[in-house]
Amino acid sequence: MSAPATRFDALSEWSDRHFKWLLVAPAVLLILALSVYPLLFSVWVLFVNYDFTVPGHGFVGLRNFTRVLADPVARWSLWVTILLSTINVTIEFLLGLALALAMVKSFRGRGLIMSLLIIPLFISPVIVGQAWALLLQRPFGPTNYVLSQILGFEVTIGWLTQAPWNFIALVLADVWQWTPFMFVILLAGLTAIPPNLYEAAELDGVDGWRAFWWITLPQLGPMIMLAITFRILDAVRLFDTIFVMTGGGPGTNTYSSSFYLYTLGFTQFHLSEATAGAWMFLVITAILITFLVRRLLKAEPT
Amino acid sequence: MAHVTIKGLHKHFGAVHVVKGIDLAIADGEFTVLVGPSGCGKSTLLRTVAGLEQASEGTIEIGGKVVNDTRPRDRDVAMVFQDYALYPHMTVAQNIGFGLRARNFPRPEIETRVKRAAKMLNIDQLLDRLPRQLSGGQRQRVAIGRAIVRNPQIFLFDEPLSNLDAQLRDEMRSEIKRLHQELGATMIYVTHDQIEAMTLADRIVLMNAGQIEQSGTPLELYEKPRTRFVAGFLGSPKINFIKARLENAGIVFADGQTLKLPAVDAQRYAAHAGKPVIFGIRPQHIDRAPMTGSPHIKSTVDLVQPTGARTYVTFTIGGEPVMAELDAHDAGKPGDEIAIALDLAHFLLIAPENGNVLGR
Q1: B99 contacts A199? CB cut-off 8 A
Q2: Longest dimension (CA), chain A
Q3: Does position A302 have pLDDT exceeding 60, yes or no?
Q4: What are the φ/ψ torsions at residue B252 (nearest 5 degrees)?
Q5: Are B73 and A204 within 8 A, CB to CB?
Q6: Which CATH architecture has domain A68-298?
Q7: Residue in B50, B99, B132 nearest the CB of A205
Q8: Residue B307 contacts residue B301 (beta carbons within 8 Å)
């Protein structure tokens, strides 16, 4: 009489305790299969020969690392990454801040201008690259033509093929796409500053530029940190626009780290070297991220 | 220190007419309280004096000089805001000294002045803290410190106590009063709280719908209100208004009970005989025990609210609720038949059609 009931209780208790595992199992399996397994696999790949051009998976020690470290293109691509991220994020920050300051007060047509300003955020980076490539293309793109008309002499810049113009082209595309991101975050930060701080400052004898310096900037601090952190994290993996606009060229001139690793692994098929490079890049990025996030968490909202 | 003169001041926000013609002269060293219900324009008036709002019409003089076109920073006024408006990223000392720093005072002088102000307000042990580490009362002290350190001609307070809890509010109220006595500065103080207005003011300016309803000393406004609005706004619990008729026999309430007026009063109001009036009397001027010479009204106790020393008793006269503040031992209980004595040295008769107090 009581036995089946007890067994049923035991069953229900067991399922109560373990059912949750069943529920998360698909997600866990997915992560195991697509992230954890490849990651562990890549650790093995680091130390063996895993190269489509050289048969066999023999143990090679640290050769994969030393080869990447010895590759001048690898070092160059790291510089390109650092240079482009710094320039991009700096310009985007300054422009975004200027825009946010201009848009913080309400005026007629503000909503419309705001919508126009954030459109670039909705466009895929590949399309942005493609559009800019078409605009800058020589000889059929309109840029050189328009410049010639304005300047009064024939402009024949190879925007996508000629250093340093190719970098300027990449910066242009990136700034065009990501300034709105800075703008939106900084605008949100500006709107959150209580207006009576400015009133108090005004009575204290501070307005205009000094109010910006003493009130706005310190108040905006955490938001600036947030915006810059997000943008840097995104900027260091720059790939799409380079792939579309310059193809890394001329030669390896505009190789970013991501682009270099991509070429190394997927067009030259030196997979174990690419893996070693990717791991080293990951460590550099991780250090940067740790630093930035720590700063971000320290910059408490006031 | 300076006097303030406001002449024919109007303020529009777009189509909204907020301040509708204010004339006001505030003497040097006077503590003036602008009081009124929300939306009466008192804050706007204060902000116009500060220069945070532009006057649409009229002039503002500080110390005999028209300041309409003077920037707020050059008006030499200091303001304490309702939500403190402390600079969150600066310490208490930096907050208090900010105005001096902005005006390029030498560092040692800033330091001494900040210390003195902090000492005055009992916050000298908090100088290194950030505003977010302070309680509401401490924050308000810092805000006041920021005002006094600059030694301005005029102090402006915009509902400085309304974000504090009741106990702290009482404490800060006395603090501000003491500060005024010590500094002797001209202060303009905005509040919607009539108790703050009564306790702090040398002069109350009671505003309603963008205009001054009445201005005068707290006692003047309390004892000799010119309108029903003024009578109803000041005093706690609120004054009772009872619909009645003025006849030769005296005041006749809706239930037919008659209150015979003393001969002087009957004569004073003779011109209004035969007309409907509103009889106003404060809860403090109603008593239960028969007072000699005071006529009686009969009623039934409806509600009893003890507060300790005094008890608020509600009953009806002529169908309208009336509250009396009685001695706790006289209060009785709901349902009791009582005889009520109205102190006829303190009553108002109000014309129902315009709310003006009669006989003034």
Answers
A1: no
A2: 102
A3: no
A4: -110, 120
A5: yes
A6: Orthogonal Bundle (1.10)
A7: B99
A8: no
Residues A300, B131: Cα–Cα separation, whole Å: 13
User: Is B98 close to A218, i.e. CB distance below 8 A?
Assistant: no
Q: Do A206 and B102 touch (CB under 8 A)?
A: yes
Ramachandran angles phi, psi of B352, nearest 5°: -65, -25
Answer yes or no: is pLDDT of A1 > 90. no
Q: List CB contacts (< 8 A) between A201 and chain B.
A: 87, 98, 102
Which two structure tokens, joined as six digits, stand for B171?
A: 């404490």
* Interfacial residues of A (vs B; Cβ cutoff 8 Å): 194, 196-197, 199-207, 210, 214-215, 218-219, 221, 302
Residue matched to tokens 């009564």: B198
- What confidence category does residue B111 fall into, taking pLDDT thresholds of 50, 70 and 90? very high
Out of B71, B85, B103, name the one closest to residue A199 (CB). Answer: B85
Quote the pLDDT of residue A4.
Answer: 62
Question: Which band of pLDDT confidence, cut at 50, 70 and 90, is reported for residue A297?
Answer: confident
Q: Quick check: B134 pLDDT over 80?
A: yes
pLDDT (tens digit per residue) in A111-140: 899 999 999 999 998 999 999 999 988 778
The residue with tokens 């000089």 is B65
Report d(CA B131, CA B88) in Å as an integer: 6
- CA B264 to chain CA centroid, Å, is 32
CA nearest neighbour of B205 among B195, B194, B214, B192: B214
Distance CA B73, CA B100 (A): 12
The ipTM value here is 0.81
Mutate to test the interface with A, among B71, B89, B132, B154 (most CBs of A within 10 A): B89
Task: Provide the whole-model pTM.
Answer: 0.79
Residue B330 has pLDDT above 50, yes or no: yes
Pick from B224, B188, B192, B222: which is nearest to B208 by CA?
B192
Compute CA A300 distance to the chain's CA centroid, rounded to the nearest angstrom: 24
- Residue count (chain A): 302
- Tell me the DSSP string of B307-352: -SSEEEEEEEETTEEEEEEEEGGG---TT-EEEEEE-TTS-EEE-T
Task: Please report residues of A whose CB lies closer than 8 A to that of B132.
Answer: 302
User: What is the rounded end-to-end Cα distance, in angstroms, of chain A?
Assistant: 66
Q: What percent of chain B has pLDDT over 70?
A: 98
Distance from CA of A49 to the nearest CA of B (A): 56
pLDDT at residue B294, rounded to an integer: 58
**Residue A11 CB-density burial (10 A; 0-12 exposed, 13-18 middle, 19+ buried):** exposed
The β-bridge partners of B208 are B211
- Compute the distance between CA of residue B197 and CA of residue B207 in angstroms, rounded to an integer: 12
Give the nearest chain A residue to B103 (CA atoms): A205
| Interchain CB distance below 8 Å, A221 and B89 | yes
> Which neighbouring-strand residues pair with B225?
none
* Residue for token pair 């000294």: B97
Rounded (10°) angle between helices A63-70 and A271-298: 80
